[in-house]
Amino acid sequence: MSISLDDITGVILAGGMGRRMGGIDKGLRNYKNAPLALHAMMRLSNQVGSICINANRNIGVYEGFGVEVVCDIQPDYAGPLAGMQAALSNATVPFLVTVPCDVPAFPTDLVKKLSEPFENNVSLMLTVAATKGRHHPVFCLMRTELLPSLEEFLRKGGRKIDAWYANIPHQAVEFGDEAAFHNVNTLEELKELEQKS
């Protein structure tokens, strides 16, 4: 089974509180004269059939990017799993791939590589990006039929992505460039990243 791009919706996770950036909406923070979430969207757009953004504030601004915006079902900024739940609840295709809004240089072959293990493993439910054996849980490709599993995990108070998929048939996919998965948590880190690139 080869996954068609039309069967994958890309999800930009921009629903967090941005605590370490002083509570600002991180996805709308400028990087190289454009919002971080827009960089993520442009980088993902050629890798998937459709895109949506998970956001919980400044909805009109995100809608101005020209894509659908889905808000958390869970209250109180419950983290990336809540964004995944919202996107899964809204999904109309068999697969979702998620990326955070604060990693502007993730690989341009992310989805291609995350898709490959599904071709030879019909029982596989989720793939996750890894570098040197370390998982990057917000970068994952999942079957949309995982929604009930995720909802049950959230109902029980679970919040960690890797704890959720630990008991689901999954596979880590190795990428060579660790720096490509570096996320920006503070304004200082954002400045440093701009200066380096």
Automatic annotation (TrEMBL):
Keyword Iron-sulfur: no
Domain notes: The N-terminal domain determines nucleotide recognition and specific binding, while the C-terminal domain determines the specific binding to the target protein.
Family: Belongs to the MobA family.
The gene coding this protein: mobA
PANTHER family named among the record's database cross-references: MOLYBDENUM COFACTOR GUANYLYLTRANSFERASE
Gene Ontology terms for molecular function: molybdenum cofactor guanylyltransferase activity
Annotated residues for binding of Mg(2+): 102
Record key words, sorted: Cytoplasm, GTP-binding, Magnesium, Metal-binding, Molybdenum cofactor biosynthesis, Nucleotide-binding, Nucleotidyltransferase, Transferase
Required cofactor(s): Mg(2+)
Record-linked Pfam families: NTP_transf_3 (PF12804)
Function summary: Transfers a GMP moiety from GTP to Mo-molybdopterin (Mo-MPT) cofactor (Moco or molybdenum cofactor) to form Mo-molybdopterin guanine dinucleotide (Mo-MGD) cofactor.
Positions contributing to GTP binding: 13-15, 26, 54, 72, 102
Catalytic activity: Mo-molybdopterin + GTP + H(+) = Mo-molybdopterin guanine dinucleotide + diphosphate
Lineage, broadest ranks: Bacteria, Pseudomonadati, Pseudomonadota, Betaproteobacteria, Burkholderiales
Residue intervals of the MobA-like NTP transferase domain: 10-163
The protein, known as: Molybdenum cofactor guanylyltransferase
Subcellular location: Cytoplasm
Domain of life: Bacteria
Catalytic activity, EC: 2.7.7.77
